[in-house]
Amino acid sequence: MRIERLGQDKIRIFLTFDDLSERGIQKEDMWQEIPKVHDLFTEMMDQAYNEVGFDATGPLAVEVFALPAQGMVVIVTRGKYDHHHFGVGSPYEDELPEEVYEMEVTLEQSDTILYSFDDFEVLIEAAHVLRHMIDEAGRLYKYNGKWVLRLEPDELDEGRIPALIAVLAEFGEATSVTPAMLDEYGDVIMADRAIDVICSHFKRQD
């Protein structure tokens, strides 16, 4: 579990599939109101307070993004009640949660594959290994000082995706950034055919 502070009232939490399986949670469980998911959220908020000083009291907006190869990204924003639903005179007035965490959860799923690389030389090595698996795919970004390779599944041979991810995991690191954040905050270095472009312009180290 990795926690980053995005602002005074917002944090991002990256959960790997190992984080989920260690707690007996399947990816599909995140869509359900079950005790072990609630326990996981409580654990995340405790860790967020201890690591980055994020106080999770009050209403929270929770966005969960499921990524195919990386795990899950959970973005938590501290906010205010929507008094149309909760508040004086509301039909829900007596149903206000008594717990510390009051959540409004949004769930999204993305099939985009995203891996980051600290060193461009390592990315060159990975590209040469991947070249025989990928014909004309890949977009390369620079984001937070790292090189981020983005692959869309419709550009790939579905049968090769597990092997492709295995190579990416060997050379790079699954990243918690979402495609939307990359588009907004990242710098596009190679807009398309990134693997082919890298291999054409950069040789492998001997």
Automatic annotation (TrEMBL):
**Source species, please?**
Fontibacillus phaseoli
Checking Gene3D superfamilies in the record gives: 3.30.70.1950
Q: Which InterPro entries match?
A: MecA_C_sf, Neg-reg_MecA
Spell out the family assignment given in the record's similarity comment: Belongs to the MecA family.
| Name of the featured protein | Adapter protein MecA 1/2
**Source species, domain of life:** Bacteria
**Pfam families reported in the protein's UniProt record:** MecA (PF05389)
